[in-house]
Amino acid sequence: MPSILPGSDPAILVDAGRRDDAAVVRPESGRALVLTTDFFTPIVDDPYTFGCIAAANALSDVYAMGGRPRWCLNLVGWPRDRLPLEALGEVLRGGAEVVAEARALIVGGHSIDDPEPKYGLMVVGEVDPERMTTNAAARAGDRLAASGVGAEIWAGSVPRLPGARRLAQAGHVPGGTMRNLESAETFTEWDGGLDAVERLLLADAQTSGGLLLAVHPEALPRLLAALAAHQAPAAAEIGVVTPGAPGRIAVRAIRPVL
Question: Where residue 139 falls among pLDDT bands split at 50, 70, 90?
């Protein structure tokens, strides 16, 4: 996808051409700003929980860029004639509590009368351009190709939620997962020991999934210790960068024994 404003403004550090989680701009003075918008229809029945999930999903775009969320706007679509406003209040309460936990502020918002309920946030965060990261889990092929390297992933080392395989086997697979797998087939070499369910799990479309980090091998023990100290769930070493064909990923069933 081409940049929206190719070369038109030196303040734009990241735009749509990077296919990243958020845009990044840096005014003439001050820190760089991360800009993102995300919202969706209910994925759970409880309004409060829906608000929490939607807000966390929007905030995660800023975290994925290495930034800190600062200011948020509520985005609401609500069928006023079909759903009570009390339910909307619970949605907003859930979103507000997640934003407060992130030490950010909701400073306004906008709503429209919509036949299908929707909720999310516009988020503005701050980031140090020299420490920007990327959510590479969904677009690892692009990132590896840009770096001129390949990668090897160990399927057995990738953390997964309890019951995920059982649900996938029963056919409960999001459409986004199927599209992810179709895209991954173009740059992925699959181990013959991985069945179709394992491939689906590795391509799962996560609403607010984990981050893929690359670190020098000598720094890995310190990183894992720091993540454990901050109670980061399911931090694990899942593979290595390789000098193979740029952008190619080899997925092995288990980690090779050296």
Answer: low
Beta strand segments in the chain, E: 12-14, 23-25, 32-40, 68-78, 105-113, 118-127, 150-154, 188-190, 239-242, 249-252
Taking the C-alpha atoms of residue 78 and residue 86, their distance in angstroms, rounded to an integer, is 12
CA pair distance 56, 109, nearest whole angstrom: 16
3-class secondary-structure state, position 220: helix
pLDDT digits (tens, 9 = 90+) for 38-54: 999 998 999 999 999 99
**HSE value, Cβ hemisphere, 13 Å, CA-based, for 220:** 11
Q: Two tokens at 103?
A: 């030490």
Q: Which of 113, 95, 112, 91 is nearest to 104 (CA)?
A: 95
Mean pLDDT for all residues in the chain = 83
Is 132 in contact with 41 (CB distance < 8 Å)? no
Domains of the chain, each with CATH number or no CATH: 12-131 (3.30.1330.10), 140-252 (3.90.650.10)
Task: Answer whether 90's CB lies under 8 Å from 51's CB.
Answer: yes
- Closest by alpha carbon to 187, among 158, 215, 149? 149
C-beta atoms surrounding 50 within 10 Å: 22
Q: Which pTM value belongs to this model?
A: 0.68
- Three-state DSSP state, 74: strand
- Cα of first residue to Cα of last residue in the chain, in angstroms, is 41
Pairing mode, strands 32-40 and 118-127: antiparallel
> Which tokens hold the place of 5?
């404003």
